[in-house]
Automatic annotation (TrEMBL):
Catalytic activity: DNA(n) + a 2'-deoxyribonucleoside 5'-triphosphate = DNA(n+1) + diphosphate
Subunit structure: Monomer.
Similarity comment: Belongs to the DNA polymerase type-Y family.
Domain annotation UmuC: ranges: 9-193
Annotated protein name in UniProt: DNA-directed DNA polymerase
Native organism: Hyphococcus aureus
CDD domains in the record: PolY (cd00424)
Amino acid sequence: MRKPETIERLYLDFDGFFASVMQQAFPALRGRPVGVIPFETDKAKYTTVIACSKEAKARGVKNVMRTPDAQALCPDIVLVMQRPDLFRRAHNALLNEIACEIPIDTVKSIDELTCKLAPRDIRDPHALAQRLKVRIAKNVGPHITCSIGFAANRLLSKLACKMDKPNGVTVWEPEGALQYLSALPLSEISGIGGRMEQRLNRAGIHTTAQLIATQPKQMRALWGNVNGERMWYGLHGYDIQAQPTGRGMYGHGRVLPPELRKIDKARDIGRLLLTKAARRMRRDQFYASKLWLWLDLREGGWFAQRDLPCVNDDQAILTGLGALWEKARDELSRNHEIVRVGVTLLDLSPATGRQLDMFLNDDCDRQKWERITFSIDTLNRKFGKRVLSLGPWKPPPGGYAGGKISYTRIPSAEDFW
């Protein structure tokens, strides 16, 4: 395994991406503490600040904080409703500008990416960082800033990127990387969550320096899989490439405004979310053999699943969802408040590998509904986004069902139909 002798990777993270895009788009928000929420502002006391600006963070506000708590820390925080399609378009514009300076290796999320460095940039990483920042400020806007880390591999450059936020540039040369790492708490290491940190503590590892001093096989045993060993090599500066992952599911979740938290209203939102997920699945040419419905209640939660006969058409999928909602109606009282509804299609098969259930013998019916669904999708693409749907289409307040704010998934334009 190769161990680079110089920096080879850049990791770029946009600072407070969602809030800074709002500040760039709306001048009245600039320089003010901003919190992005999922609902219109008159529902603020029932919801959460899902992203905040650097001005709000300086006052103690954090992403994913209840709005009353955020307002207690920062009484003058400006709450604005999310604009997911604006975030998507800003993301694409920023990627275009960055690609003009350096090829993008991997887009990690809507606000993070990584690049391989050319020899010129290895010699002068600060000049590259300056070119990127100037280009973004000039061609997209000065209120969207980024932090950049340089190191020998992707993991180390990501950790370096966190050091001087916001709007900083950090270079970790290979010979000094372990020293920089040793000063970080375990919770700052990408890939070590709360449970993993507890497991490490039980094994007598309480600091990053102790983690670095372990052996690769020991870390593999602690993680319970090869990822622990890969973590060891990443922390020690080896050229570790992320393993490709396959698609495992399609799903959507939605926090419900107060007026939609009874089972009949939540059911309508569940149908809409599942229709959106099924459209995404069809665009990628997959079929599903299992459906999950999960509900976050004011007290506790509820979950059920249903097997599907390897389908991708709306009729079969929505019929399965209807059965799950009937189960929910039987098991939950009318007084239950449903705070969040989610649907997931899984056990995926590529279209080329689909196998029908020989005992079900519904191929003729399935082909008919697949032709109908294909026609609906085609007409929606051509004439009006949602000109046709199978059953009612009732978007929740604020819209964006299925195209909501997301750090890990970058929505496509079709997600906003």
